[in-house]
Inverse folding.
């Protein structure tokens, strides 16, 4: 107690720490240097400072409530850090030891920052979102500009089927499936699905426009309109199927955020829709899991002989990428991650990230790590539901809606198209947990979950 009393005067510096926090989030949002070591150091330093200035506001009940979310996160990051996948890539030089160490430190620190920021009254979401979207807008604009200079407007259509050569090497994919993005301190050729991720996250800022009047809040409206326009142009001038699907996802999420605020009945519709989608997804995952194990061989053969089921569960291009990661998990002892795919008893090949965290998590953290990640998402959805509908205040809800939109777009897009091996002429290996957007999403999850507990307003009936 004496220590707490001695640290109490530090609370007057809360506003300074809030400003420093915005700087940290700007670095992470811009993916400056794309260094997880940098992100981890900054997040840990911020967490320590926040503990010092908010120590009197930390209470036992608050810690106990977030433990249900924090425990599976601890399990997930520890399993990924010490699992076979991380150890293998550290051995071959894809990861350095500092990165492996700062995976759990960085993610856990930014999660605790989410809780501590919920106790800091000087921290304002309106400043937070302007900062992270501004950093994203600069990154997206630079990427767009470099692509237009090097390849021109609508090049995926104009150069469809063409290939690029670099140092005498032919690109593994055609020009229409690649783009330039800033990686570290230079622009490199990457897969199109990686390029589309950042404009999609920036486009999630469009949810704010439903709740701001251009007449009464001209400056704010113009700022978010600019963010939205840059996101739209980055997707429209470099068209792809990924851009189309991401744009449609943003529209759906925006409508959910807006209609759920205006009409209470929509909340029930969204809830039912979410439950149905979750059941459908769980059913598909269970079937895929079973048919890719030895004990599911008879079911696999039955599906293979049925044209419709074969197309859905065996022969489509997504399943062909995902299936090797869940093949014979029990036989091959893949409970703590793995780094190779069995081809025959004598020959093996390195396992590659599939582009979906639902399957990549099994490789990076094993079955237990994948289940921990699933629990995190389920509790996050529950937390957002409680946080969003605390009251019907337009001023507060629009920032809550932005937070949910960013979270939803990131995890929905990453469920299908977040390939961590996105380099064309460069060897890059960055699973979802080693990215800036993931750290921002973790912060938002813990902030919203903690706010739902800390605030005393009566929850609006859904």
């Amino acid at each position: 107690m004496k220590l707490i009393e001695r640290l109490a005067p530090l609370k007057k510096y809360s506003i300074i720490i809030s400003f420093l926090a915005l700087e940290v989030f700007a670095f992470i949002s811009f993916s400056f240097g794309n260094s997880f070591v940098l992100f981890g150091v900054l997040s840990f330093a911020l967490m320590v400072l926040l503990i010092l200035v908010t120590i009197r506001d930390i209470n036992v009940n608050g810690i106990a409530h977030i433990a249900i979310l924090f425990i599976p996160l601890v399990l997930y990051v520890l399993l990924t850090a010490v699992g076979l996948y991380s150890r293998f890539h550290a051995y071959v030089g894809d990861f350095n030891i500092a990165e492996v160490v700062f995976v759990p430190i960085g993610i856990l620190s930014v999660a605790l920052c989410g809780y501590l920021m919920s106790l800091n009254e000087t921290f304002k979401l309106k400043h937070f979102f302007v900062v992270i979207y501004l950093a994203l807008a600069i990154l997206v604009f630079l990427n767009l500009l470099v692509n237009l200079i090097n390849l021109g407007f609508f090049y995926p259509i104009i150069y469809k089927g063409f290939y690029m050569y670099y140092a005498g090497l032919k690109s593994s994919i055609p020009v229409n499936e690649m783009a330039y993005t800033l990686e570290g301190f230079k622009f490199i050729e990457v897969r199109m699905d990686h390029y589309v991720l950042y404009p999609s996250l920036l486009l999630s800022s469009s949810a704010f426009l439903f709740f701001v009047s251009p007449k009464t809040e001209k400056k704010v409206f113009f700022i978010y309109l600019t963010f939205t326009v840059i996101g739209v142009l980055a997707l429209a001038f470099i068209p792809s199927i990924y851009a189309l699907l991401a744009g449609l996802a943003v529209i759906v999420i925006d409508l959910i955020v807006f209609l759920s605020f205006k009409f209470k009945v929509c909340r029930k519709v969204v809830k039912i829709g979410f439950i149905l989608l979750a059941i459908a997804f769980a059913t598909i995952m269970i079937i895929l899991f079973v048919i890719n194990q030895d004990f599911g061989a008879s079911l696999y053969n039955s599906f293979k002989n049925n044209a419709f089921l074969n197309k859905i569960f065996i022969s489509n291009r997504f399943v062909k990428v995902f299936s090797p990661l869940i093949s014979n998990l029990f036989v091959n002892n893949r409970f703590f991650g793995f780094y190779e795919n069995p081809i025959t008893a004598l020959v093996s090949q390195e396992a590659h990230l599939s582009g979906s965290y639902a399957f990549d998590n099994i490789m990076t953290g094993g079955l237990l790590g994948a289940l921990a990640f699933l629990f995190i998402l389920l509790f996050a959805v529950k937390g957002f539901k409680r946080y969003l509908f605390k009251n019907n205040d337009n001023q507060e809800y629009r920032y809550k809606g932005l937070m949910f939109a960013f979270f939803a777009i990131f995890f929905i897009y990453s469920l299908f198209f977040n390939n961590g091996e996105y380099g064309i002429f460069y060897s890059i290996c960055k699973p979802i947990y080693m990215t800036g957007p993931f750290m921002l999403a973790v912060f938002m999850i813990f902030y919203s979950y903690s706010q739902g507990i800390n605030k005393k307003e009566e929850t609006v009936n859904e």
Observations:
- The two ends are 42 Å apart (CA to CA).
- The first helix runs from residue 2 to 7.
